[in-house]
Amino acid sequence: MYTATPPQVRRTGQSRAAYLTLWMFLLVNLVIVEVMFVNPSRPAPNTLTAIGRFLGLHLGFVMALQLLLIGRVPFLERRIGMDKLTNWHRWTGFTIFWLVVLHPTFVLLGYSRLDQISFFAEIPNLAEQMPVLLGMIAAGLVCVMAFTSVRMARRRMSYEAWHATHMVVYVMIVLSVIHQVYEGSSFASSTLTKAYWWGLWAFAIGSLLVNRLFVPLARNARHRLRVVAVVPETDQAVSVYVGGDRLDRLRARPGQFFWWRFPGHNSWWQVNPWSLSAAPDGRTLRLTAKAIGSTSAGLRQLPVGTRVYIEGPYGALTTASRTRQNALLIAGGIGITPIRALLEDPDLTGDIVVLYRARTPADAVLIGELRNLVQARGARLHLLTGRTTDGSQPFSPESLRGLVPDIAERDVYLCGPAAMAATVQRSLRALRVPARQRHIEAFRLGV
């Protein structure tokens, strides 16, 4: 029989601290940027170029902010969660796109008026200067990334293709920094502003290198991860067991995920975020994936002994964010993996209800394990099958209230496709479930 530790209701102080830190970083730096703009090293020749400089200065700051968001800073990833950070990343990306469009537009308009030539004639005129040309190339790369991030384009691309396209972000960063070195005027007005500006970029680039390169390299060298077993779960899903040295030192928690690479089996740039589908025990890690892209489909052919390279653990879908005694766990499709792991967490106490959405009973991955865990914990499981086109609306406010009458008094953990997550979010708001009680990870693309 499952024995749990005494109930422990967690507070959301860590999450609030992370949000406060992020917002304070944003606001303080914006104030500094405004002060820098009004004290440039050289005045703009006219109003149009001044507007262009204003937009360019803010573009540089927003790009540094974006680096921090894609840098997988543990302080943010483990307290805010990938889902919310991905939303920040997405909106910051579109802000960069519009600034990239408007900044050169106003600069070109200003210089075309100054040189008394047409807008289009000014383009090759400025492009003769190498720093400006590099900035134009960087702007073109930003436009490519923005186009591939549009929902219609994303739906037509595999995750692997989308991720490979977004690797050009690193080329764009290099070109942008070179452009700023030669063209910056607002942050070159004094030694202090130069120190601030390059300190900001050093912090952003340093965070990226440390968290996405140096720390993962050190951890993987220490733990020496290898595939120890590959177990088919259904015709479309497979579990991969990974062993290594001293895995307890990873401090991974049920509900978290890693970014996984399999060097030697896949290309080095192929990386996927997969949640742990079982609570880490210090000896092995287990992921369970559905054959959606080429990488996940190829997991069945992973030879035992294949090297594994991970980044993480990440994610805030853990019991550390609990605010209530009882919990509702909701999963859609392969989103059952972190939910199944959470059921093994001894800190998940109280009355537990699990809602598992699958197209058919045969599509319910890990259903046998789930039923055993639910029975051992005295929890309740509802397997919700069928198509919404047949009139089934399992996540409408009425359906959720019918299945879990006290839903507003529970912590709600959710993992599933983005469309399903959006539907559940709307219903939770309609049912007046406070935001602090909603813990969500949706399937979204992340760099």
UniProtKB/TrEMBL annotation:
Pfam families assigned: Ferric_reduct, NAD_binding_1
| Keyword entries, A-Z | 2Fe-2S, FAD, Flavoprotein, Iron, Iron-sulfur, Membrane, Metal-binding, Oxidoreductase, Transmembrane, Transmembrane helix
Example of a GO MF term: oxidoreductase activity
Matching InterPro entries, A to Z?
Answer: FAD-bd_FR_type, Fe3_Rdtase_TM_dom, FNR_nucleotide-bd, MRET, OxRdtase_FAD/NAD-bd, Riboflavin_synthase-like_b-brl
Tell me which domain of life the UniProt entry assigns to the organism this sequence originates from.
Bacteria
Stretches that traverse the bilayer: 17-38, 50-70, 91-112, 132-150, 162-182, 194-215
Regarding the membrane, this protein is recorded as: Multi-pass membrane protein
Where is it localised? Membrane
Assign the protein's first listed, main location to one coarse class.
Answer: membrane
Q: Which cofactor does it need?
A: FAD
GO cellular component terms given for this protein:
membrane
Domain FAD-binding FR-type: start-end pairs: 220-320
Protein name from the UniProt record: Predicted ferric reductase
Organism of origin is: Micromonospora halophytica
